[in-house]
Amino acid sequence: MIFTAHANGWADVGDARFRCAFGVGGLAVAGEKREGDGASPMGAWPLRRVLFRSDRRPRPATVLPASAIRKDDGWCDAPGDRNYNRAVSLPYPASAEALWREDAIYDLMVILGYNDDPVVDGAGSAIFLHLAREDFAPTKGCVAMPRAALETLLTLAVPGDRLVIGAP
Predict the structure, then answer these.
(1) 166: left (phi > 0), else alpha (psi -120 to 50), else beta?
(2) Which among 41, 73, 1, 75 is positioned nearest to 165, based on CA atoms?
(3) pLDDT at residue 35 tops 90
(4) Domains in the chain, start-ordered, CATH in brackets?
(5) What phi-psi label fits residue 23: left (phi over 0), alpha (psi between -120 and 50 degrees) or beta?
(6) How many CB atoms lie under 10 A from the CB of residue 98?
């Protein structure tokens, strides 16, 4: 199944339509996306793996691979580092985003297969599908949806499914 996050800020998940948020930098053609530009990369990206905060919620209902986020989980966002755009353990000697957060946006998230096969240095990292803030504030380059939308998506998704970002 293909899930679609339209450029107009609405996402199709099964038979339902939900609001979604993109990066503060808007949408970028994948080949033009750069680290730190705040843009969400347009394209069709595989749903790789689900992460969740087990201290705040149970394992989500999904057949996708899923694991609980640990306090030392991070994601390397340092161009030039050998682990760029990969999961790392914190503290990490290069720049890395913490996945264990005080706010709730990473309580449930999907790692998208953007810039991971192969990794292109500086082309953008840590592109996730995660929970939206109540006001649908822009992300740092991810796609964010309400909890109901993400939970619905996860119940429908199977390995090999994709999220299309930026469709008309």
Answers:
(1) left
(2) 41
(3) yes
(4) 2-167 (2.40.440.10)
(5) beta
(6) 16
